[in-house]
Amino acid sequence: MPSYEFHHILPLTRAHKATLARAVTDWHATTFKAPRFIIGGLAMKTNRLDIFLRSGTSRTAQQYQDITTKLVSIWDEAVKDVQTAAESDKELKDVFIMGVFDSALERGFFLPMPGKLEEWVLENKPEFQKRADAGDETFKGLLKVAERPEFQAPGDM
């Protein structure tokens, strides 16, 4: 389950990559006394979903399981009519949720922590409106979302 991802500029061959993967797997297995099948280290064909979320949230283990279960069902529905030699090839076998973002800046705004979206939209709505009025399609779309009841300030409805 750990994920080691090297980014490189070298023209590594499959053999180089396999050697590196085996060495990292061996190191991790012996250092943390983890079974090799959990660590990986061998190339395998699989359907996998990596989810990158904000870290430091108060999500519970059950919420993470619910997220995973829902996304697996979305996958299953989307691929049900894909023709394949083995039905097991359709299965989403691996789902990893990683809390990796301590802070996020998108389109010039620091994004709110989970559970704070409505408050963030209300606080930033005037600036969103300026950008939408200037032709920014992202903020035009965001303002449409902000019309939903949960984004209205008390007394606006």
UniProtKB/TrEMBL annotation:
Domain Tautomerase cis-CaaD-like intervals: 1-125
InterPro entries: Cis-CaaD-like, Tautomerase/MIF_sf
Pfam families (alphabetical): Tautomerase_3
Highest taxon in the source lineage: Eukaryota
Protein name: Tautomerase cis-CaaD-like domain-containing protein
Highest classification ranks of the organism: Eukaryota, Fungi, Dikarya, Ascomycota, Pezizomycotina
